[in-house]
Structure formats: structure tokens, C-alpha cells
Amino acid sequence: MASPSGSWSQLRQQARSLESQTENLFHTYSAFTSDPLPKSSADEARTEAALQDILKQREAVVSSLSRLLDSESAVNSSAAKLQNLTLHRSTLADHRREFSRLKSSIADSRNRTNLLHSVRNDISAFHSASQLEEGRSEADYMLDERARIDSSHNIADSVLSQAYAINADFGEQRLRLQQLNRRAMYAASHIPGINHIIAKINTRKKRDSIIMASLVAFCFLMLLYLR
Q1: What is the rounded CA–CA span in Å between residue 119 and residue 157?
Q2: In degrees to the nearest 10, what's the CA dihedral of 115, 119, 121, 127?
Q3: Sequence-distant (≥ 6) Cβ neighbours of residue 11 within 8 angstroms
Q4: pLDDT along the chain (227 residues), means of 10
Q5: What is the pTM of this model?
Q6: Which of 72, 86, 124, 221 could potentially form a cystine with 77 if both were Cys, beta carbons 3.0 to 4.6 Å apart?
Q7: Max CA-CA distance within the chain?
Q8: What are the backbone dihedrals phi and psi of residue 205, each rounded to the nearest 5 degrees, phi first?
């Protein structure tokens, strides 16, 4: 950047104008500290570049004032000019510190905002995952319960089928016994002398039962007598 030239008054007027422009840019730049975007916006980058450029211009103007003051003879230089130069240097240094402070504040605010945004995203993702897992767990539980119910139904159907089969077998056996009984009765009624034989067998059984009962009673009485 070429050093500005001109008289002392012209350079001082330029310095004051640049200082006023710097104050206006600071007012605009400070607004980005309150609620910064996750990334630097175009307006923020443009304001930051304008501040950097204007600070360089002011440094060049202050350097020109210093050289102009050094070139004047001791007679022509005055304490007022030296005081003015010192004031411009001090104001430039203050503005540089203010620019660094605002830049750091914007960066800190952006980092906090990004951190909070990241934490919110993590919490939201965790809640979504938890709800999804709860939904899956409930669905798995319902499927397991349905499987257990189906298994119970299958066991009950198997038991009922076996019971029906056993009942059917009993019915067939009862029917067979009835048929055998009818056949035996039919044979007994048609074979000559079979009824007489059966009657003798029944009479012999009764006689044997009476003899056995008498023998048991006699033995019991003998035991009582011998005691």
C-alpha cells in the first residue's frame, strides 16, 4: 500500500475520517457476537475484511504524520502536533485491541453455539434411538407372547386330538365286546346242551365258593378256640 501524502491538516482529516469509519464498522461487527451463525456469513466476512483494511490505512496515515513531523524543523514543529500524533497512535492501538477482542468474542460465541447445537443433536439422536429401541422391544415382546400363545394352542390341539383318538378306540373296543357278547349269546342259544353245561359250571362255582367260605370260617373259629 502506498503511503498517503499531503499536508499535516489533510493527513489529520483523513485520520479522523478513518477513525469514524472504524467506529461504525465496530458497531456493525459487534452485532455478530450476540447470535453468530454456525459458520461465518458473507456480511461478517465482509465487515471483518473492511476493518482489517481500514486499520492498515490508518497505520499508513499515522506513519505519514510521523514522517512529516520528523521532517519539520524544531522551530516549525509544535507540541500540539506531537500531541495529535500521539492521540492518533493511541486510538489506533485501542481500535486494534478492540478488533481482536470482538473477533475473539465472535469465535467464542460461535463455538458455544456449535457446542450447544451438537449437544442438542446428540440428545435428540439418543431420544430417537431410545424410542426406536423401546418400539423394537415392545414389538419383540408382542411377537414372543404371540409365539407362546400359538405354542399353547398347538399343545392343546395335540392333547385334544389324542383324547379324541383314545375315545374313538374305546368306542371301537366297546363295540367289539358287544359284538362278541352277542355272538356268544347267539351261539349259546343255538348249540344243544350249551346252556346245561354253563349252568353246571355256575353251580360248581357256587359250591366251591360255599366250601371255601366254610373252610375259612372253621379255621377262624379254631384259632379263636385255641387262643
Answers
A1: 56
A2: 180
A3: 4, 61, 64, 65, 68
A4: 74 94 94 81 92 95 89 68 92 95 90 77 69 66 79 68 64 69 62 63 75 79 73
A5: 0.50
A6: 72
A7: 178
A8: -65, -40
